[in-house]
Every structure is written in C-alpha cells, then in structure tokens.
Amino acid sequence: MIKVLIVDDSAVVRKILTEELSKYKDIEIVGSAVDPYIARDKIVKLRPDVITLDMEMPRMDGLSFLVKLMKHYPLPVVVLSSLTPQNSETALKALEIGAVEVLCKPGSAYSTLDVSRNLVNAIRAAASAKIRVQPRKTRPQAEAEVVPPPDLRFKTTHKVISIGASTGGTKAIETVLRGMPVTAPGIVIVQHMPENFTTAFARRLNEVCPIEVREAKDGDHVIPGLALIAPGNRHMLLHRSGGNYLVRIKDGMPVYYQRPSVDVLFRSVARHAGANAVGALMTGMGADGARGLLEMRENGACTLAQDEATCIVFGMPKEAIRIGAVDEIVPLPQMTRQIINALKDPKKGNPQRFKAANRSG
Fold this sequence. Notes:
By secondary structure, the protein is an alpha/beta fold.
C-alpha cells in the first residue's frame, strides 16, 4: 500500500484527487494539507511514502518547500502544476531540486480521468524511485563537462539517434546531450511530459548543451547538431524524404497512456532509418518504448538501455531487456560515448556487448 499526502491550497483539487486516488487498492490517502507548514507537521506524523505538491500556495510556495523537504526529509514528490509557461519553468526547477515527476492539474487541457491515470502511474513510479537530491545551482559549463566530447570524424548525415525516457528522464537526457558533440547526427527524443513543459524543457537544454535543442514542429528536418524534443500531448514520428529525415507531429490515441509515446517514435525510426539508427531507452516506469526498440533492433539498429544502478525507475529498460530488444546495457555516465561508438561501428560498439538473446530477463 502506497501512503500519499496531498499538499494543495485548493479544496476542490484536494477533493478531486482524494476521490480519484481512493479508487485504487494500492493507494491510501493518509491526509491532506493546505500549505507547507501544515504539510511539514503531517509528514512527521503520518510518514507518507509519496507527496503530491502544488506549486502556488499561501505562506510558502511549493518550490521553497521542496528545497527544505529535500534537505531535511527527502521524500518522493510528484508536482502538480497548471499549464502556464511560468509554471512550466517552475516545474523544471522542481525536477532539478529532486521532484520525481511533474504533471498537469485537471483543467481545460486534461480531463480528470486523464490526470487520474497519469497521477496513479506517477505515484507508483515515485514510490519505487531512487531519490537523488540535486544541487539547486547549475554548475558552470566548464565544470560540468568533466568528460571531453567524443571524437566523431565521420559522415553523419544519414545517421539518426533516437532516445526515449520517462520518470527521471529530464536529468538523464541532459546528461547525454551535454556530452554530445556538435557534429553528432540528428537526434529525436520523446520524454513523457505535458505540453508547455516540453517547450520549457527544450529551451533549458538548449541553454546548457553544445548542440541546438528545441521542441519539434511538424516538418522539421533532422540534421547533425540538432536535437528535437517531441511536444507534449502529441506524437512524433520520423519520416524520410529522399536523402533527408524529417519529423511529423500528429495526434492519435495514447500508447501505454502516453502521448507522446516512445513506441510510436521508435517504430517510425525502425521503418525509415533501419540500420542507420541508434536507439537508447532510459529511466522510466512501464513498458513504453520496449516493443519499438525491439523493432529497431530487428531492422538492424544498435539498441541501448540504461542500467538499473543509474535509473531513477528501472521499468522501461527492464522490459526492453526482458523481451530481447537490447544490444547493450549502459550506465548513464557512459551513455553518450556508447551511442557515438555504436554510430561509428554498430557491430563493435562495446566489447562487453550484452547478449540480447537472453530473453528470460
């Protein structure tokens, strides 16, 4: 049973969340709080496993409370925020500080049912997540890049890198892209995240990474030195036009309750890039991306999965390994270099190559 404390100044939101979450047998709402001061006392008394946290509250905002919480009493936190550009920036800061997941509140863009499904999955992921408190201040660029960018002296025009992640993926993707050289092939990325939040996420990555990073638009060309982030609440697919790759942004049913879906992207990469692609499935709960990665591998691509020790939640990579979709299991600090090695020679990316025939898990 996962014990949850709801921290939100809105009586309506507290009531909706309590009613919706109480429908699930593995979740128990142990209490609620209207502001961080009351939340502090209830955390000590009730000892919840997971907290849902609003960002805008009286007496103390959610971000300030999160800083204190992670310093003195680290707990898995799922942030609930409204869909505004300002709140998207705040939500990203919350992830940097140590929040496990950010989701949208019920509103015009997301129904109560949508939020309920996503919140339940986020709470389950948070309950099993490894809490890693991050320093709030971003280190200077020179200090952060302790590993020099890999050498990439070969033609990359027809190569594509595809990456999928969910819970814990924002930091994992940043780690990979920070080490990526400007000569790297075009990169397409799905990170499970609501709309607007992906805009802020791409903008932040563009500020700290050597390559250009932006939220994808329909028809964008996939070119060396550019990473495209799938927009929230839309699917992103890779297409090929002559000798060029481009992305299509489409609506469609969620896959594994996710839109954008990693599976949708990976399957399109398998179809249009084949052996010219490298796929990396990283931290996250559930199974999204595993089948798509398998299709990539069956079409000649080199496929990588983040290892358990460096995942916040070892769900999606574990499922990919279980079904035999993975060529190599890679710790996060070595992921960028391993992707580059696989691009240079997909058959010799790692002498300790994982035998993907191990389907027994």
